[in-house]
Amino acid sequence: MVRDNNPNLINFTFIFSNKRTSNLGVLLLFYPIIFTMNQLQLIVNQIFTDSFNEKPMIVRSPGRVNLIGEHTDYNGGFVLPAATDKSAYLAISPSVTNTGKWVSVDMGETVEINFDEIKFYQNHRWINYILGVVQQFENRGMKIPPFNCVLAGDVPIGSGMSSSAAMESAVGFALNEMNGFGLNKKQLAQLVQQAENEFIGVKCGIMDMFASIHGKENNVIRLDCETLEYQYFPLNLGDYKIVLFDSGVKHNLVESEYNLRRQQCEEGLTFFRKHFDESVKNLSQVPLSWLQSSKSQLDPIVYKRCQYVIEENQRILSACENLQAGNLKDFGIKMTATHEGLRNLYEVSCKELDFLVDAVWHESSVLGSRVMGGGFGGCTINLIKANAIDELFDRLSVSYKQNMGIKLKTYSVVTANGTELVICD
Hints:
The protein has 425 residues and is of the alpha+beta class. The longest helix has 26 residues. The chain has a domain of 235 residues: Ribosomal Protein S5, domain 2, CATH 3.30.230.10. Strands 1, 2, 3, 4, 5, 6, 7 and 12 form an eight-stranded mixed sheet that branches. It has a four-stranded antiparallel sheet with strand order 9-10-8-11. The chain is built from 13 helices and twelve strands.
């Protein structure tokens, strides 16, 4: 369900009206404006075939939602994500020349790439997410020959569903398959994370790409971000659905305080290693008693950051017990408790997100609600009874517009399998 225009609609119409990609312009005469996953798959295939006169390999790589466990990944803790039906699609094939042509359907751009020099593009920033992955393969001694590609997706940018990780995972998976490098899923997730860390400059943890690559339909993944051990837990929602309310405030993690939060957590970990146990591996392993006994010794801001991380890690373990017992009510309560921690301790929420959570937390049809993703904008994630979604959205959208001056959008997502090859007949 999309209760507003598809987030890619403006981009697609823009391409058509400016005739940047004539093949896509023709396609738009025959396809509905609201694209489904299969239609996106057909579109990247058709554009690639018409542009390069050959059939490509096509990879689908999903975005993700994270039910509980925010900002715990880079602190070595647990997370509980699931891959979604919102995905990036990549059509790709080796180039017959010493350059490659890369097409972004969403951005309406075609760029010719010189593979002799990997450089950061200031004016075509989407290219950097591909180049960062290429660089990581080559850093491992795996030479990447020139290739052509067409990319499109329906993961809303800035929503907290990790559109960048979906794109990077698609590229990593495709290059691994196309060149026969033989990396396994865990190695691919680590490679993609390094691309994001080193080339893009976002010091993110591994959760986004791990969930994108390892996703399993009707399941969440409890991932230990320290050991990369993971376990699937069935997500039996019954009469409830996962619904995202888009605040309309777009965040950019490179330009936000994301990296500052990580530095503050590292400062806390350094303190505990110095004064308690130098062998403690990460902040998530720090006992709450250590933190409580150090309140007067730690910077107050650092204390709050550490408190959130330690409590959130314990909340995840308890939430998994709720899922095993089929106790969605208590699971939802923990989701909302996470939002309180993100708002008051980690301080990555904003007035728009707080409004959306505060407006629904008392609703009998809502089990839980919280900010999702890095924060500073994006979406809230909610568990809502299916037959109440439309009426709740109608009321909330009016109130949100009146109070925030922003038109509310919503996306209903379902769990899906992780990054995979897809077939176009």
